[in-house]
Amino acid sequence: MTMRLDYLSIFPAYFDVLDISLLGKAAVNGLVEVHAHDLRDWTHDRHRTVDDTPCGGGAGMVMKPDPWGEAFDEIIGTEPDSSVHVIFPSPSGAPFTQSAAQELSSAVRIVFCCGRYEGIDHRVIDYARSMWTVHEVSLGDYVLNGGEVAALAITEAVVRLVPGFMGNPESLAEESFSAGQDGLLEYPLFTRPVSWRGLDVPEVLMSGHHGRIAKWRRDESVRLTCERRPDLTDSDFGVPH
Ligand SMILES: N#Cc1c(-c2ccc3ccn(Cc4ccc(CN5CCOCC5)cc4)c3c2)n[nH]c1N
User: Fold this and answer.
1) ipTM of the complex
2) Residue ranges with strand state E in 96-198
3) Tell me: the pLDDT tens digits for 36-94?
4) Average pLDDT score, the chain
5) Which string of b and e fits 121-132 if b means at least 16 CB within 10 Å?
6) CA 91 – CA 143 distance, rounded (Å)
7) Is the CB–ligand 1 distance for residue 59 below 6 Å?
8) Which atom of ligand 1 has the smallest separation from the CA of 138?
9) Is the pLDDT score of 238 beyond 80?
10) Of all helices (H) and strands (E), which one includes residue 148?
11) Which one of 115, 188, 208, 229 has the largest count of C-beta atoms within 10 Å of its C-beta?
């Protein structure tokens, strides 16, 4: 099954990068199909205008609904289809999580609507909700200039979970933020040389003793999680708050 990814943006060149590396390989293997669109192609004035002043006043500009509606008609269609997932990155969106990525990895079609300025006229989102499955999501509590970077991050998080994408699916099982690691942060990683600029690989990792190695890794994951992400710890880890 090929996953079709569409990107609507006034900066479609942001998505040229998807031809590189693993994503490029996935496209070649037919796992994903990528289409980037310039929203201005659905404007009709000489200046190819996509924005206007906010109703009710306020700073900045708001993206007009008309180009989005015409782009939707051409790219997605005019019939409702809940199997189409439409993602609006937004500072006021719900936090994007690994479980959301996992859910989206089984989607047949995902359309990313990348806003700019102060955002998109809300009727565009309301219309999309009446037609497709809509996700208003945020990458995190910091302000970006538009939705493109978020769309790229979400794409990578989702596509790497598509069956057949990652060469070694076992590497997905041990990752942080996935059930396999009990939601703890990943332990520190080391490789050769054993000694580097006076810094040595922890002896336990060179011991060949799998039980001790597993304990060290678990202890390190718990230590790191307590230090950096107390919000992820709870009594189940046997770790005091
Ligand atoms: N995903 C994601 C994002 C985004 C994001 C996503 C999409 C768009 C479209 C336009 N912009 C720029 C923009 C910046 C500032 C504001 C006003 N601010 C008022 C006070 O509260 C904060 C927002 C609005 C819009 C976007 C930003 N930012 N951070 C994330 N994690």
Assistant:
1) 0.95
2) 109-113, 133-138, 195-196
3) 999 999 999 999 999 999 999 999 999 999 999 999 999 999 999 999 999 999 999 99
4) 92
5) beebbebbeebb
6) 7
7) no
8) 1
9) no
10) helix 148-159
11) 115
